Amino acid sequence: MIKNNLNEVRATLNSGVCLVAVSKYHPVDAVQQAYDEGQRIFGESREQELRIKHEALPKDIQWHFIGHLQTNKVKYIAPYITMIETVDSMKLMCEIERQAQKNERVIDILIELHIAQEETKSGMSIDDCLQMLDGGEWRDMRHIRIRGIMMMASNTDNVDTIKHEFAQAQEYFKLLKEKYFENDDLFNVKSYGMSGDYLIAQQYGSTHVRVGSRIFGNKEI
Questions:
Q1: Among 104, 95, 84, which Cα is nearest to 145's?
Q2: Cα–Cα distance between 85 and 45 in angstroms, integer?
Q3: Residue 209 CB contacts under 8 Å (≥ 6 apart), including other chains
């Protein structure tokens, strides 16, 4: 099932769009099946679950942390995490820098923006993001790379709402690129679009889509 599902999703991806297979809540053997079909990038949202999978699975997997990350958990994933997609404060960014330095690594991060109408969604407002970047503290950090933005659209059947939010994300990315990262070729990631809306997200410039249930089915753990 996972093989067929994975191939079906891949067939719907635009050229150059990166698939992050969201493996959270799914067992090690399910991740291994996807790995055996050539998938190398997986998304997890809980540190303990990620630790178990990292220890059990091949070491060339690129793990993306896609859940809310507490600063006191950064030290556990810093030795091996490839990308942290949910950076929503300078405090968290500073801790990632500190732990990456301890591990003599450079960790890619995304700034998580709150664009959806739902208050339960996490992330920074665009105003808070601009204020943080204007402060300039991030420019002296040598062990992180700000690669782009991440967001989640509203959980709604209203396609117009979803399109509006993805269009906003695209505009915010352009704003940040022009204002802070114009000469930084690595600031090129727009991570938005999940199982229910990734086809729409691709219409609005998404470069990374986070797809879970369409590949692995319903939650298991």
A1: 84
A2: 10
A3: 13, 17, 18, 19, 20, 191, 192, 193, 194, 198, 201, 202
Residue-level pLDDT at 219:
72
Determine the pLDDT at residue 118: 72
Q: What pLDDT does residue 122 have?
A: 83
Which residues touch 127 (CB under 8 Å, ≥6 apart)?
A: none
CA dist., res. 218 & res. 210, Å (int): 15
Distance separating alpha carbons of residues 161 and 115, to the nearest angstrom: 11
Pairing label, strands 107-112, 189-194? unpaired
Mean pLDDT of all residues in the chain?
A: 96
CA–CA separation, 65 vs 83, rounded Å? Answer: 6
What residues in the chain have per-residue pLDDT under 50?
Answer: none
